């Protein structure tokens, strides 16, 4: 190894080592979501990926037209409690931002449910049956809903007529 190669190796090591030693402090979240979390006094979940099995990331950020109903959502931690923050509205822009407490157990990652679901499986966050208009009684969700999926338990979220709702599957 010549002098130039050694110098280059030292420069690369000095540049890369602080990043490797420090590790990602933002949980891999896009900066726009990280800033929103900090404004809510909520931070990325430490050690989110340090568990068994494959897990989805603790955020969902998508600007694709077919998924515009959920263009941004993330899970954060505040005072040893976990929260789901829903930032985007449905295609009609009717659902407001929502912060939902998830408790003290670390949640799974966020993604899109593999298929549309019947509206009848959803309940409001206060556990009331979702009021579905007669014209929509046999209909399914317009888009594939957002899901928190970990270890076989799925919590699915959807906005219908300006109201966030949830369905749970084991």
Word description of this protein:
The chain has two helices and nine strands. The strands form two sheets. A five-stranded antiparallel sheet has the order 5-7-8-9-6, with no helix packed on it. Residues 6-25 have low confidence and may be disordered. Helix content is 17%, strand content 28%. The chain starts with a helix and ends with a strand. The chain has helices spanning 3-22, 31-39; strands at 59-61, 72-78, 81-86, 98-103, 109-112, 123-124, 146-150, 153-160, 163-169. β8 and β9 form a beta hairpin. With 170 residues, it is of the alpha+beta class.
Q: Strands across the major sheet, in which order? A: 5-7-8-9-6
Mean pLDDT: 75
Q: What is the tally of beta strands? A: 9
Could you state the order of secondary-structure elements as H and E?
HHEEEEEEEEE
- Radius of gyration of CA atoms, rounded to a whole number: 20 Å
The major beta sheet can be summarized as: 5 strands, antiparallel
| Low-confidence region ranges | 6-25
**Shape label:** globular
Fraction in helix:
10-25%
Structural class: alpha+beta
Spatial gap, N to C terminus: 58 Å
Number of helices: 2
What percent of residues are in strands?
A: 25-35%
């Amino acid at each position: 190894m010549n002098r130039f190669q050694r110098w280059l190796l030292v420069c690369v090591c000095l540049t890369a080592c602080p990043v490797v030693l420090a590790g990602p402090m933002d949980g891999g979240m896009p900066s726009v979501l990280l800033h929103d979390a900090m404004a809510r006094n909520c931070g990325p979940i430490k050690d989110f990926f340090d568990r068994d099995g494959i897990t989805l990331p603790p955020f969902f950020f998508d600007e694709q037209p077919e998924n515009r109903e959920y263009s941004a959502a993330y899970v954060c931690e505040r005072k040893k409690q976990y929260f789901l923050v829903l930032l985007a509205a449905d295609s009609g822009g009717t659902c407001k931002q929502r912060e939902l407490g998830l408790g003290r157990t670390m949640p799974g990652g966020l993604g899109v449910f593999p298929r549309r679901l019947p509206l009848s499986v959803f309940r409001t966050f206060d556990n009331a049956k979702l009021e579905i208009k007669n014209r929509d009684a046999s209909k399914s969700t317009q888009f594939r809903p957002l899901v928190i999926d970990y270890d076989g338990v799925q919590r699915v979220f959807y906005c219908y007529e300006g109201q966030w709702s949830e369905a749970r599957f084991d």
